[in-house]
Amino acid sequence: MRLSHNIPSLNIFREYVKNTKKNSQALSRISTGEKIIKAGDDPYGLAKSERMRIQIRSMQMAQKNLQDGVSMLQTADSGLDSLNSITQRMRELTIQSGNAGSDEDKKIIKNEMDEMIEAFKTIVNNTEFNGTKLLNVDEDRLMQIGAKVGDNIDIPFVDLSPDKIGVMKKNASGELELDSTKTLQHLKDNLDILSDDFIGNSLEILDAVSNKLVDVRSKYGALNNMFEGEYDNLSEFEMGVTEAESSIRDADVAEEIIEFAKTGLLMEAGNAMMVQSNKLPQEVLRILENVRSR
């Protein structure tokens, strides 16, 4: 027996402190739902988890970009559909002007065609998405569709204004360029419906306009399908990375509850044992009392 150092009691206290720490750690994990709360818990696991979280948030934002891209292309397609309907109606009127009607009837047809060209122009100028014009600009716009560098795509925008759409011709260099004498605006301003060549020139312009609209719509449709497919791929990939990150960072609540209950019992047992071990020095006092009494 020793008075200065109660070794059994110190051993019990050391184990009690260990169990207290484990109990507190289990309680923290249960309350937060995470097994890595601070860097000291698992430095390597924390580094992997943080990199995965960066990737997950980037993919989530890329998915929002793709959703916005799909909405934008659908808006553009809606405007193109209206333009296509106008073009088809104008073609009907052009053919109708070739009947045996009077000059006054033909002028009425031309007035309707002119109004439809103005409607065409209005749709082109007013079709926009979130303040961005879609049908009266001629440029490529870069869009980020992924979480990494280079995961982007150029979306081509075409100016479909009445004075910018019509019959194409080859220039001196052999390159295609717009024929300014055969545009939709030229049809309105310069073609006389009473002339013999009106139907031929008008149909040539309208067919060129129709082909351009179909070409642009097909490109936007292909981009729309690509965006939707990329969105699905990103969504599945994000789910996989999220699951992997969860296995690293998230706590197993059932396991932590077991640990919390176990360490709680050990702490109570430690308290009881310390009470008993602290009685040992008292035995020394009794022995000394017996010696003194003699």
Q: CATH H level of the largest domain: which superfamily? A: f41 fragment of flagellin, N-terminal domain
Percent of residues in beta strands? Answer: 5-15%
- CA radius of gyration is 40 Å
- Mean of residue pLDDT values: 87
Poorly predicted tracts of residues: none
Number of beta strands: 6
Tally of individual helices: 7
CATH fold type of the largest domain: f41 fragment of flagellin, N-terminal domain
The level of helicity is 55-70%
Under the CATH scheme, the architecture of the largest domain is Up-down Bundle
Question: What is the total number of structural domains?
Answer: 2
CATH class type of the largest domain: Mainly Alpha
Structural class: mainly alpha
| Beginning-to-end CA distance, first to last residue | 21 Å
Largest sheet: 2 strands, antiparallel
Q: Which of globular, elongated, flat, extended, rod-shaped describes the shape?
A: rod-shaped
Widest β-sheet, arrangement of strands: 1-2
Domain Flagellin C-terminal: 203-288
Function: Flagellin is the subunit protein which polymerizes to form the filaments of bacterial flagella.
Family: Belongs to the bacterial flagellin family.
Main location: secreted
Describe this entry's structure for a reader:
Keywords: Bacterial flagellum, Cell projection, Cilium, Flagellum, Secreted. It is found in: Secreted; Bacterial flagellum. InterPro entries: Flagellin, Flagellin_C, Flagellin_N. Flagellin is the subunit protein which polymerizes to form the filaments of bacterial flagella. Belongs to the bacterial flagellin family. The protein has 294 residues and is mainly alpha-helical. The protein has two domains: 67 residues; 156 residues, Up-down Bundle (f41 fragment of flagellin, N-terminal domain). The protein has a two-stranded antiparallel sheet. A two-stranded antiparallel sheet has the order 3-4. Strands 5-6 form a two-stranded antiparallel sheet.
